[in-house]
Description:
By secondary structure, this protein is mainly α. The chain has a domain at about 10-135. The chain contains seven helices and no strands.
Amino acid sequence: MPGERLADPSARQGRRPKGASVTWSDYVSLFLHFLVLSPMSIGGAITTVPEMHRYLVDQTHWLSETEFTTSIALAQAAPGPNILFVAVLGWNVAGLAGAVMAMAGIMLPSTLLTLSATRWARANREHLALRAFSAGLMPLTLGLIIATGWLLALPFLREDSHRWGTVALIAVTVLLTLKTRLGLVWMVLGGGVLGALGLV
C-alpha cells in the first residue's frame, strides 16, 4: 500500500516487503532528490527517468521494477500534463504526502528558473550565446529521451512473451514519428490499447 517504506531488495522482484512507515527523513530525501533533478530536466521531467529509476528502484528499493514502469505508463496514458508521472511515483512511494513532496521538488526550481530565463531570453533573443546554447541542448535532450525510452522498454524486452511485440511497437512508433504528423498522444493511446489486449 502507499505509505509503506519499501526497504527490502525483494521489491525488485515485484513484491512489496513489509517495512516500516515512511519517516520524515524519507519525505525530505524524496523532496531533495527531485529538487536536484529539476534543473537537470532539460526537455521535460521525463528525461530524468533513468536517475529516478536508479534512486527509487535500485538504491532505496521503494518501488519494484514493475511498479516504476507501470506508474509512468499509467500517467502518460492519462489526460493531463506530462509531468503527472512524478506525482504517481511519489504516490506509490508514500501516498498523498509522497506525491506532494515529489511534485514540489521537481516543480519548484524549474518553475523559478523558467520564469527568470524566459524574461531574460525575451530581451536578448538575438544574442549569439543564447542561440548557441539552444542549439547545444538539442542533442542532449534527444539523448536523454532515448535513454528514458530504452529504460522503460527494457523490462518488456527481457520477457519472451513481450519481446517481439515490444520491438514491433517501437519500430512502428519511430516510423510513424518520422513519416507522419500523427500526434504523440494517439501513439501513446494506441500502445495502451495494445498493452491492455495483451499484444505487447
